[in-house]
Write the structure tokens for this entry.
Amino acid sequence: MPGKKNSLSQWIIIVLISLFSVSCLLPFIMVISGSLSTEQDIVQHGYSLFPKTVTFDSYKILFLGSNRIVDAYGISIFVTVVGTALSLFVTAMGGYVMARRSFKYRNILSVYVIITMLFNGGLVPWYIICVRYLDLKDTLWALILPMLANAFNMFLIRNFMLSIPEDLHESAKMDGAGEFTIFYRLICPLALPVLATVGLFVSLNYWNDWFLGLMFVDKQELQPLQLLLRTLVSNVEFLRSSSNAAAMQRISAQIPSESMKMALTVVTIGPIVFLYPFVQRFFVKGLMVGAVKG
Amino acid sequence: MAHGKSYHVSLQLEYNFMERDMNMKTNGVFKELFQNRTLLLMFLPVAVLLFLFSYLPLAGLVIAFKDFDFSKGIFGSDWMNPLFDNFDYLFSSDSAFRAVRNTILLNAVFIVVGLIFEVGLALMLNEIRNKYFKRVTQSLTFLPFFISWIVVGVFAYNLLNFESGAVNRILESFGMSPIDFYSEASLWPLILTIAIRWKVTGYGTIIYLAALTSIDNSYYEAASIDGANRWQQIRYISIPMLRPTIIILTLLAVGRIMNADFGMFYAMVGDASLLFPTTDVIDTFVYRSLRKSGDIGMASAAGFLQSIIAFVLVIGSNYAARKIDKDSAIF
């Protein structure tokens, strides 16, 4: 089929795609290289794709010198794990109720959820409600609760559950199972593909979130990793004023601020890049589930 | 907040419940609710969460007409006198106007460029016959979607900063003078466009690629029997088949044109006020008025207008999407 002309355009396409793919990867390599470089190399030669001399000093300082970074890691992990578990639990239940055909008022509930996707009160009232009425300022819950119920994910789950045959419910009911038992024992295992996808999306959002921290957390010891990264990038002095400045000095006389930024970046994206090859196909599938109606 | 706003999901309701409702007596309502109390209980957590974080802020929109006093709260604060004073103040501000203009213009550029890149990459990937190459490149282009804007901000800093940025090093090696990107506002619409393309092109491509692979192969076979080459097949089969998807995704994006991606702007630009002439958008403007300058009246008036216009646009674009393809509208 492909004539000579076609194969030329094939080559052009391959080159274009390759260039774009490589450009997607390069910044990652630059950051890793920067984190392994000495401060001098960065100051003298700038950021490059390969470190001139390899050193692990910045990582040592990161983990030994400053317990704030270890704390931030702990907070990010806690928020991601607890947030994902809770979010998955409540949105799956919500989606299940909206998908129960025998429940006459389920569509009213759906409308209740849809409205939140259409109307948006905006930042100011939302912020004031959270701070003044719900007292979320400087609490861990501020990093979890506002993102917990997601209308979009609920509909993703509902649509998937609608495709599960109604007969299953009936026969389980016949056997005397209650609604929660049916949901937990019967429907959730069947809906595992969509739950896995939603769970991954939610955990990604929690791990990558810094907006809630920016809005609600002024206390530095409660800051998640992403926000700490921002603090570090915009304010190098932060490290020198950090609690363990003396311990840092022991590792390296001069604090390598540039390579430390890079090291913290690597540490922040590490879990994602590490898990990416394994979970990527779930995301692609999830997008398909969203695109093809359930 | 919800970053990767995903694509069209059909959320159609089934309307037949209205009919059944007619046949029932009113006291049947309570019976029905009581019988389904477990279900209601299961819905309760999300109902409460949505009430607190979506419905209360909606009611809180009235704050734009109030002389807000933190100790009195949103609903207890006095009404503004005159009522539209916050808005008068907003309309007299040049930076508010600038923010609105930037939001719409930048979003318009993002939509158009995004469409070209995403459809283009999908069409190109669709031409690749080597499965391994296709899979690897798709994985690589999807990867940036998974990192936060904060991290992208660090990447941008690596490339652009004046002292050690890679771009300036390259410019210097060609004998050109380095550019101080973080004070050069005119370059930032381009920089932001590149950044957003870098981050989400692979993600946006997936939906188009799905649409392309669902096209029946017999169209292409028939076309090639008629002597159509690959370009003609793309031009007359692939692109027309993508048309509904393109139109709907674009309409939905237009519906969100008043809402800037706060994460991107805040992480990439931050407090670099030299760049504000081209990069300050409604969301960053409201954020600064709220958290930095503490000007809640101005922030709430701007937020109020944004919410109202966004609502009209969302309803309008959905209505249009529904006209084109009933199943693709959000509601």
